[in-house]
Amino acid sequence: MQIQQVLLNLIINALEAMTVGEEPRELLISSRKSEKGGVHVAVRDSGPGLRQADLERVFAAFYTTKPGGMGLGLAICRSIIEAQGGRIWATTHAPRGAVFEFTLPAGQGETASPEHTDRR
């Protein structure tokens, strides 16, 4: 449920970022197996992007680039991802936009064992 909250926050942020300007809007959400066997998720938008200085601070509590923003959403996302043993970061996407990515380690115990298999 917490990872769902992270994804929802990243998607809403991307959609809000793309409300500025007349350029075509594109939101791309992708996932793949990470190098260490976990999962890698990326949310890319075609909004105005982030300045280099913002990339370093965007996950800090109470720091925001949005008018009227509280600066808590990405800080909470970072806390959730790190509590699960993962990592989250942001990069710019040329010529426009930002990419927010996170990795999570492989789950332990999410697979069904033979004693839990439905045998009807």
Notes on the protein architecture:
With 120 residues, this protein is of the alpha+beta class. The protein has one domain (2-105): 2-Layer Sandwich (Heat Shock Protein 90). The chain contains 3 helices and 4 strands, in the order αββααββ. It has helices spanning 2-17, 52-57, 73-83; strands spanning 27-33, 39-45, 87-92, 98-104. It has a 4-stranded antiparallel beta sheet. α1 runs antiparallel to α3 (73-83). Residues 109-120 have low confidence and may be disordered.
List the domain count as a whole number. 1
Radius of gyration: 17 Å
Shape: globular
CATH class: Alpha Beta
Question: Which series of helices and strands comes N to C?
Answer: HEEHHEE
SS-based class: alpha+beta
What is the level-2 CATH architecture name? 2-Layer Sandwich
CATH superfamily: Histidine kinase-like ATPase, C-terminal domain
User: Within the largest sheet, what's the order of strands?
Assistant: 1-2-4-3
Give the CATH topology: Heat Shock Protein 90
Query: In whole angstroms, how far apart are the ends?
Result: 29 Å
Count of helical regions? 3
Overall pLDDT level = 87
Please mark out the parts with pLDDT under 50 across 5 or more consecutive residues, or reply none: 109-120
Could you tell me the number of beta strands?
4
> What's the assembly state of these chains?
single chain
| Proportion of residues in helical segments | 25-40%
Strand content: 15-25%
